[in-house]
Design goal:
Structural class: mainly alpha
Number of strands: 0
Order of helices and strands: HHHHHHH
Shape: rod-shaped
């Protein structure tokens, strides 16, 4: 029994080739082979037929060979049509009809399963794209929140530090010379200005990545140079004042 099941599987594999039933002689040969398999009282197993069809379909996908289940379906139809008009027993025709029906049924089932899998894969692809979009939006929102928090923290920190240092300087304005006052105020301004700039630049780097703005860097450098010149001039004037009145 197992030997005949194996022989039937070999016949089905051969029938999946395009040139299997290319002429009357080959058709007659396959019908005789199948007639020998189905006698006496042989009954094929549905599971074995489905396994053979699945293997044929899998091999055709991997190797891109000419063997495929569509060709098998057409060749089985050819054999069944020739058996009706041939000199074969009714019992064999009935067996061949059952084989034809079961092959068609399993092929239809396999094709339906593949369509379902393709639909699921397509849905998964769409879902993955939507998830990537949602993830990108979430990351962008996180960057925006960091930016807002950073700007707010920078303003508060700069404002508090400026008020603290300014209060400390102004509270002792009557105890020092104008030269020291201008120098200290310039130094405080230079520190607060650069601190505010560094904080905002850090927020920008987090939000947009590393961005080099030559125009902005030139402006910042110019302001630093200007404040530095004020401090240098103030120091020189203090030296002159000290030299004349010491």
């Amino acid at each position: 029994m197992d030997d005949k099941q194996s022989k039937l599987g070999e016949v089905l594999k051969e029938l999946s080739s395009e040139d299997a039933v290319s002429n009357e002689e080959k058709i007659r040969g396959y019908l005789l082979r199948l007639q020998a398999i189905y006698q006496p009282e042989f009954r094929h197993f549905y599971s074995d037929i489905f396994a053979v069809i699945t293997k044929i379909d899998g091999d055709s996908r991997k190797t891109a060979s000419e063997r495929n289940i569509v060709t098998l379906q057409g060749n089985i139809n050819v054999l069944y049509s020739h058996s009706i008009d041939g000199d074969f027993s009714e019992e064999f025709k009935l067996c061949l009809r059952k084989l034809y029906d079961h092959v068609n049924l399993d092929i239809a089932r396999l094709e339906y399963t593949k369509r379902i899998v393709d639909t699921i894969n397509e849905s998964n692809t769409i879902t993955n794209k939507e998830l990537r979009v949602v993830k990108a939006k979430a990351e962008q929102m996180q960057k925006e929140y960091v930016t807002i928090l950073g700007i707010f923290s920078s303003i508060v920190l700069t404002f508090v530090a400026g008020m603290f240092f300014s209060s400390a300087v102004l509270s002792n304005i009557d105890k020092t010379t104008i030269y020291r006052l201008v120098f200290v105020m310039s130094l405080i301004g230079l520190m607060l200005f650069n601190l505010f700039h560094f904080l905002l630049d850090y927020v920008q780097r987090i939000n947009r990545g590393v961005v080099v703005d030559n125009e902005k860097n030139s402006l910042i450098s110019g302001i630093n140079v200007f404040i530095g010149l004020i401090m240098v001039i103030d120091f020189v004037l203090w030296l002159v004042y000290w030299w004349r009145f010491s």
